[in-house]
Amino acid sequence: MDTLSIESLISNGARRYERLAGNLKRRIDRLAVLRVCVFFTLLASFSFAVSGHYQIAGSSLTLLMLAIFLALIFRHDRVYRALNTCRARIGFLNDDRHRIYLELDKVPQAHEWHCDPNHSFAHDLDLTGSRGLFKLLNCAHLSTSVDLLARWIEGAPDNESLRQRQFAARELAPQTGLRMKLRTATYQHRNVAFNETPWLNVPAPSTINPVLLWPATILGTTATVLIGMRFLFGVEGLPWPLVSLVALVAYAWFGFRQRSWCESFLAHQAPLRAAKDLAAVLKAAPFHSKPLEDIQESLRQTNALQQLAEIEKVADGLSYRANALAHFLINFSVQWDAWHLKRLDAWRERSGGDLGKWFDALTSFEAHASLSHFQWLHPDYVRPDVTDDPEITFSATGLGHPLIPPSKRVVNDYEISGAGKIHLLTGSNMSGKSTFLRTVGTNWVLARMGAPVCAQSLTCSTTRIWTSIRIQDSLDQGVSFFYAEVLRLKAILEATKIDHPPVFFLLDEILRGTNSRERLIACKAAVRYLTERNTSGIITTHDLELLDLADQFPDQIAMFHFQETIQGESMFFDYQLHPDELTSTNALRVMQAAGLPLVFD
């Protein structure tokens, strides 16, 4: 299957949901008209029932119309939820179409990855931001799943776990229906974080103790019966004022003692509802890869779906607190909240310890689904072979940048392996040096996290990645451009002191903020230092004198270049990587082409 086929499937799916949404909208309109008719019929029948004429027929018709009216309300609610589901799925498919064409600024993102400003590679490789790779990769709605994807980007697991993650992504990729159900379920809970459960650690109130709860319940029920006998049946001589006063004191005391825990639970019940909906999606799905089997088994062994459904009933029972009158009546009569909090405490004792495991499993599943969806959207991407080689290894054919549209993307073959290996990359301005650095780094990051890569083939080892491509000064912190470069270079050199895993670095025109003479001296010193470490990488440079180091370290330093073609007054770039050095430059020609009003001798 190619990209055009995927785009066709997306377009067909969007049109199908749009037709369904239109049908549902017309059904809602018909139900609205029908509800109005039934409502006026209900009013008419009620008038007959209370007028004394046709009382029996009016009462019967009133009950019938009331039942129909309530049924229509429930039906309208179900159809309206179905319409919202259709609209959400249309949005998902439109987002996927934008992802295919790399129109990432049109893709909404519920949660962004806010990484450290001094991250070792994220900002330089354009992983963050409104048009970053992370936005292309991430389809998760839960904040905890987004955080997990970010952790997968930042650090590579052991190779066996990485391969299992790849297999899981491959297994989920063709299961478009399952992923659509998952996206729908998580979208409804997109503002939920699975770590919001403070009520688990709040001590249970004393009001759920049976020694207090049973007498208070009997007292409230007795008071309710006595009040009913007095005011409904006119029975005199009952001690209803005293019993009611004691019951009212019990109601107030119980409410005061248990309010804190009850409100804490209700304020953080959303993660439980989200977990139940996600667990329902996973219940019947057949999986064969180990990560997905482990996720499903961890839910099945602890009966997660049933337990989550049970606690949802507890939350529904406590939701009557929103209606002040109903809340007073049922708690005055039977201590409704206390009995439900007793059920909540029993549930916490039984399943509270498993809740964190369920959250972790469901978070992991949504993160795996993002990897699989990325693979499905890019069928021409390949699964990289991540080796156990302790040394740096990177060998790719047809390597391209995933954020460049296929129609404009130029691919290259590239290989580097061993410790202390440095590739000096020269080239004319605008020839593609910085883009090539990002191409190598971005695909290596994808490979490390278990995602497919934009290449025909790729074999690599797991390694730490450090970059210095986009340096910025800081007015707030009083850091100049040159000093920011120095600090970044220092961080990279410090990182290379740790041998395992080794560091792969990508340095673009280092120390640009100082004069040519001192820059050359410092760059040569940095290159010599790096050749002595368990590290490898690529350095781009315009300092042709730096290429002399290749003669001093012929086994460790190799040279590559990009070049342009000049036709008349125009320059053309093929963005192809060539071996050896480039001896010509084009800075003056670029300035002339830009129309600078300068005369060059």
Task: Report what the structure shows.
This protein is of the alpha/beta class and 601 residues long. The protein is 57% helix and 10% strand. It has a six-stranded mixed sheet with strand order 6-7-8-4-9-12, sandwiched between helices. It has a four-stranded mixed sheet with strand order 1-5-2-3. A two-stranded antiparallel sheet has the order 10-11.
Strand content: 5-15%
CA radius of gyration: 34 Å
What's the number of extended β-strand segments? Answer: 12
SSE arrangement, N to C = HHHHHHHHHHHHHEEEEHEEHEHEHEEEEH
Number of DSSP helices? 18
Total tally of structural domains:
3
What is the CATH first-level class name of the largest domain? Alpha Beta
| Distance N to C terminus | 57 Å
Low-confidence stretches: none
Give the rounded overall mean pLDDT: 88
Largest sheet: 6 strands, mixed
In order across it, which strands form the biggest sheet? 6-7-8-4-9-12
In CATH, what is the homologous superfamily of the largest domain? P-loop containing nucleotide triphosphate hydrolases
By helix and strand content, what is the structural category? Answer: alpha/beta
Look up the CATH topology of the largest domain: Rossmann fold
Fraction of helical residues? 55-70%
Per CATH, the architecture of the largest domain is: 3-Layer(aba) Sandwich
Shape descriptor:
elongated
